[in-house]
Amino acid sequence: MTGDAGSPMMPRSVSRSVPYVAVLLSLLLGGIALAIAHLDRVNGLSVVLGGAAIIAGCMAVGRPGGPDVSASFIVLLLAAAFLGPLSAALAAIFSELSATARRRTPARSVVLINLPASVGPAVAVGVPIRLLQPHPSDSVIFYLVIAAAGVAMFLLSFLIYATLKRALSGQPFPIRQFLETLPGAALNIALAVAGASIYLVVGLRGIVFALTAVFVFSYMAHLLEQSRQRAEQYVSLSWGVLAGLMRSLDIRDRRAARHAAAVARFARDMARQVGMSQQEQELAHTAGLLHDIGHFALSDRVAERGRTLTDEDWEAIQRHPELGADMLKDLGIYGPVAEIVLKHHERIDGRGYPQGLPSAEIPEIAKIIAVAEVYDTLTANDTYRTRMSSFEALRELRRVADTQLDGRYVEVLAGLLIGEGVEYRHADMADFDTELDMERRINQARAG
């Protein structure tokens, strides 16, 4: 199968097998290098680094829109140090072309951005290395020259990449991306200096072993990046489904999404007020967003306003915590949220539903959700009750404190509301999409 202009298209199965093939090729390269080790050392190193450049390109790992994270940098720096600028340029071309085949990079990006950002710096540092150290030696000066050349090559590469990217697509200079790549660049420079030392002391066999280790490390980075991408996809899909369910529920009951957003905001702020960890605050916020998602499984007649509910209807309503917990439990990463959703209608006196649990068996965040939910129900203008003022609602919460609700969290909410304006105390404008903040949740998944 071919693409435009007869260029070969890589089948998906082949693309997935590239990392495995690359590791095998690196091992094969080691065997070939050992076989030719009796030849001139420079010729043997040329073969090793040329092959290594191709393998490094095949194993390139990186997020779309950013420079690759691969062993290419180390290979190019070693080529510049031992073989000169021309060999470094050829190694850069080999690496970029193999990376292009691996990732199917558009030809325009390869020619106008990737190759200049790779070949140019490799040549630029190869010339001064040869001028300063025409004969590589196992000396501190030589290693310092390599380290300085590595810094210069990294800075030049990033500057060329960012400048060309901005010129072609109008993107601003990626300062944050630059700062994020600094630790990796420092590690690559250190590994290149170590590789140079190994080659000078041990010889060709040593550099083959060192590069093989780098390729294994690069493959592990490839697996890590894959897992991050899958986590992003999983979180995006999961929250997409949950948000869709909440919006569907909001069509039947116009208060559902606003109420969920309000409870989430109050719950997060209360968790912060009592000194819970950042992770627990996030858990409280997420549970607040999803605490009523079980209503989606109830019949339309239960949600219909103005209808007198039968005993069967009330029994169905009291099942919504179980229904919601079952929905969230099946989504894996929401296990802790599922337990909170299951128990957010339990009471301190043990007379709640669906399980009638005593206070000691109710999660603290579920107690917080209960207080936030009752408060918003009493103060909102879109409920079936007569709207109360914030003062009246707190008086009602204190009346049922230590029977229905945990009195500690009632007072936490009361303290939280002091000095706040009407917009906060009456969360009529709470927005589900704002509280959902899908981009933030995906970024959290990316960060692990």
Describe what this molecule looks like in 3D:
The protein is built from 20 helices and no strands. It is mostly helical and 448 residues long. It has 2 domains: 228 residues, no CATH class; 194 residues, Hypothetical protein af1432 (Orthogonal Bundle), CATH 1.10.3210. α3 crosses α7. The longest helix has 49 residues. The N terminus is likely disordered.
**How much of the polypeptide forms β-strand, as a percent range?**
under 5%
Structurally, the number of domains stands at 2
Question: How many β-strands, per DSSP?
Answer: 0
Give the helix/strand class.
mainly alpha
Distance between the termini: 38 Å
Mean pLDDT: 81
The count of helical stretches stands at 20
Offer a concise description of the structure.
The protein has 448 residues and is an all-alpha fold.
Topology record:
Layout: H1 12-35, H2 41-58, H3 72-82, H4 85-103, H5 107-132, H6 140-169, H7 175-202, H8 204-252, H9 256-273, H10 278-290, H11 300-303, H12 311-317, H13 320-329, H14 335-343, H15 364-379, H16 390-399, H17 407-417, H18 422-425, H19 432-436, H20 438-446
Helix pairs in contact: 1-2, 1-8, 2-3, 2-4, 2-8, 3-4, 3-5, 3-6, 3-7, 4-5, 5-6, 6-7, 7-8, 8-20, 9-10, 9-15, 9-17, 10-14, 10-15, 13-14, 14-15, 15-16
